[in-house]
Amino acid sequence: MSDIGFIGLGLMGDAMVQRLQAKGHALTVVANTSRANVDAAVARGAVEVGTAREVAAASDIVMLCMGTSDQVESRMNGDDGVIAGLRPGAVVIDFGTSLPASTRALGEAVAAAGGAYLDGPLGRTPAHAVDGLLNIMCSGDKAAFDRVKPVLDDLGENVFHLGALGSGHTIKLINNFFGMTVANAMAEAFAMADKQGVDRQALYDVMSAGPLHSGMMDFVKGYGVDGDPAQLAFAIKNAAKDVGYYATMAEDAGVDSIMSKSTLHALSAARDTGRGEDMVSQMVDFYADHFKG
Q1: d(CA 2, CA 89)
Q2: What is the pTM of this model?
Q3: Can you list the residues of the chain whose pLDDT is less than 70?
């Protein structure tokens, strides 16, 4: 079993730690904002340390599951960061959804310190993580990937190697841009049905009978028709962050993303008017209120 360091025990990170401990891996953790999850991990046998540097010093594999690129960079860099304490030959994996340019820059710094950096953004939910059923979109040095793949297989049902460092985050951002754009289109469609006096269920029945039918349509229908926001358990604030990263990625590539503008505008407006903690399917309410003026 590997000595694993884990940073970021939020909903997903906590579920992943539970899975790793159930598979017999030794864990070193550091507290961030989820004190209760750290305490639970320690109660199951994890060792808690005070800094990310100490996590790295105790670990052959360092895993991060953070919310933003800034958070990842803050844990990686500096005197108390992962890079400062990195063991020779260690592998660092960023499981969050980060900016590819940031990922590549961190990869260079980790390589200079004698380690390897992989990006491995995730698909599916914390419930899947507990059972080792995540989708893991990994990229970076293939030899490093091969070394850690047995551990990734403990976490994921589908583990992909997608090419050069940053490819995983690139694909995840494209995936999330597309998904959030479809979700917003469906949310506005339900709100437009209200405005035109058309029954939402009738609209869904027609749309889902043709080639437009998709899982994302069903997730939004779960709230828009059935009143259950949990079918798409992804907060509006997180969706806005991911689509914003997609737009930044496009800018970094010297291109102008047309499609992301309206999606990002709507998500940002919903977030900034107090709906950030709502689930994306609840954008139906945002569009309905918008149409009311």
Answers
A1: 13
A2: 0.93
A3: 1
